[in-house]
Design a protein that fits this description.
Distance between the termini of chain A: 37 Å
Radius of gyration of chain B: 13 Å
Strand content of chain A: over 45%
Oligomer: heterodimer
Strand content of chain B: over 45%
Order of helices and strands of chain B: EEEEEEEEEEE
Helix content of chain A: under 10%
Shape of chain A: globular
Number of strands of chain B: 11
Number of strands of chain A: 11
Distance between the termini of chain B: 41 Å
Largest sheet of chain B: 6 strands, mixed
Largest interface: A-B, 23 and 24 residues
Number of helices of chain A: 0
Structural class of chain A: mainly beta
Shape of chain B: globular
Chain lengths: 117, 112
């Protein structure tokens, strides 16, 4: 079956702009998480959505937001971009919570590489 | 705050050799994961370790978990060039309230 799909794959923005990234999870997966990957900070948790509700949020400023739609697709938005927001943004989905055998294993998309100039 | 430490962070080894990557974490964990990342690519799930003493093997890679020592190992047997990649361990704690906490990754280069 199709994996996690993220769009766009690459984008360049300037400081002060905003950006929206999109993620389509694996079919049947209702949990979507977002991570930021940078050379300096490594992989850091942004937030997790399940059934259109934000379950958890990492330690990021309010400029970082997200949402999930009824079809489990998710978007994340970064407003007032800063140079330090340049990163690979990874989306991951996992199997429906509450079902037997859910290991919590995350399946990652290819990522959206954001460059802020 | 959960901390996850991997070592070594960089490893260059020859084909045919064995080596172990270590992953220590600072608090009681619910679950531990190993991922592989090739340059410019996403993260590929390798192993999911859910209980103390868990051991999983896939090809030349074997992962184990000791929850009492808060330690996981990823052992590479008779390394081949195709295993060159960056390997991450990730820990879930607190029921996943903080997502996964990743180690900084081990950049592995296997030379012929």
């Amino acid at each position: 079956k199709a994996g996690v799909t993220q769009t766009p794959r690459y984008l360049i923005k300037t400081r002060g702009q905003q950006v929206t990234l999109s993620c389509s999870p694996i079919s049947g997966h209702r949990s979507v998480s977002w991570y930021q990957q940078t050379p300096g900070q490594g992989l850091q948790f942004l937030f997790e959505y399940f059934s259109e509700t934000q379950r958890n949020k990492g330690n990021f400023p309010g400029r970082f937001s997200g949402r999930q739609f009824s079809n489990s697709r998710s978007e994340m938005n970064v407003s007032t971009l800063e140079l330090g927001d340049s990163a690979l943004y990874l989306c991951a989905s996992s199997s429906t919570l509450g079902q037997g055998g859910n290991t919590g294993e995350l399946f990652f998309g290819e990522g959206s590489r954001l460059t802020v100039l | 705050e959960l901390k996850v430490e991997q070592n070594p962070l960089f490893l260059s080894m020859q084909e045919g050799k064995n080596y172990t990557i270590y992953c220590n974490y600072s608090t009681t964990s619910d679950r531990l994961y190993w991922y592989r990342q090739d340059p410019g690519k996403s993260l590929e799930s390798l192993f999911v370790l859910l209980s103390n003493g868990a051991v999983k093997q896939e090809g030349r890679l074997m992962a184990s978990l000791d929850t009492k020592a808060r330690l996981s190992t990823l052992h590479i047997t008779a390394a081949v060039h195709d295993l060159s990649a960056t390997y991450f361990c990730a820990v879930e704690a607190g029921g996943g309230a903080d997502g996964l906490t990743f180690g900084k990754g081990t950049h592995l280069i296997i030379q012929p």
